[in-house]
Amino acid sequence: CLREVLAAFRACLTAEQTVLMDPYLRGWNGLIRFLNSLGTIFSFVSKDAVTKIQIMEKYRSSDQRERYETLQTMVEYELASGLVSLKNRGECPESGCRTVLRLHRALHWLQMFLEGLRTSQEDSKTSVICTDSYNASLANYHPWVIRKAATLAFCALPTRNAFLENMNLGTPEEAVDMLGEALPYVCKVYEITEELYAKHKMLDLP
Ligand code: 1PX
């Protein structure tokens, strides 16, 4: 049920405007469950996302777990300890900072997609909303072959109303209301993260 996913992104936000890692990963795990329910055609997407979530979960269960409590503590710790490479991916292929950056970019897609879905007409095509939001966000970071595979897979998405019903938030109208309530939290998580990465000039980590 997508309600828990949206609640998880809400739970990420602290009074100090930091982003808690555990609910962030919980939110992502829920999204991946939902993605898997759409069919194996999206396996190549969920596989990559799961790999990234697992990298972060590994940090959260390591001796350094406290360093990874929030995105802010992670950035501070990894930068101070030379665990982030600003130039060469090979040097720190699994840094928390680069890994979260990939999820963060995908969150931008999610935000636009859900907003598109929420504000669309009843007869709109989910595949079009999805393609438009993808082209305006994540696609800019993907090579041609991934863009091609993604756009092909989007064609398999169910109609707008069937998609909204799949979300298990009630009728399509109820799902739209729920999205209207919950999306500001997803946006806030995105904004705080974007600012944090911009401040440290890490928006292009290889
Ligand atoms: C209510 C709606 C919920 C829908 C849930 C959908 C969750 C989608 C999760 C997408 C996560 C994508 C993570 C992608 C991270 C990424 O950009 N990775 C690339 C770079 O990684 P690297 O380590 O090499 O720097 C990597 O090359 C990506 C490979 C996989 C393909 C990614 C295609 C993304 C398409 C996004 C939308 C998909 C689902 C639409 C279903 C509604």
From TrEMBL:
Biological process (GO), any one: negative regulation of interleukin-1 beta production
Keyword DNA repair tagged: no
Topology with respect to the bilayer: Peripheral membrane protein
Gene3D superfamilies reported for this sequence: Glycolipid transfer protein
Catalysed reaction, written as an equation: N-(hexadecanoyl)-sphing-4-enine-1-phosphate(in) = N-(hexadecanoyl)-sphing-4-enine-1-phosphate(out); N-(9Z-octadecenoyl)-sphing-4-enine-1-phosphate(in) = N-(9Z-octadecenoyl)-sphing-4-enine-1-phosphate(out)
Gene Ontology CC entries for this record: cytosol; endosome membrane; Golgi apparatus; nuclear outer membrane; plasma membrane
Subcellular locations according to the entry: Cell membrane; Cytoplasm, Cytosol; Endosome membrane; Golgi apparatus, trans-Golgi network membrane
Sequence ranges assigned to domain Glycolipid transfer protein in this UniProt record: 20-168
Primary location: membrane
Entry keyword set: Cell membrane, Cytoplasm, Endosome, Golgi apparatus, Lipid transport, Lipid-binding, Membrane, Nucleus, Transport
Source domain of life: Eukaryota
Pfam families: GLTP
GO molecular function: ceramide 1-phosphate binding; ceramide 1-phosphate transfer activity
PANTHER family recorded: CERAMIDE-1-PHOSPHATE TRANSFER PROTEIN, GLYCOLIPID TRANSFER PROTEIN-RELATED
Family, per entry: Belongs to the GLTP family.
Protein name: Ceramide-1-phosphate transfer protein
The organism's taxonomic lineage, starting at the top: Eukaryota, Metazoa, Chordata, Craniata, Vertebrata
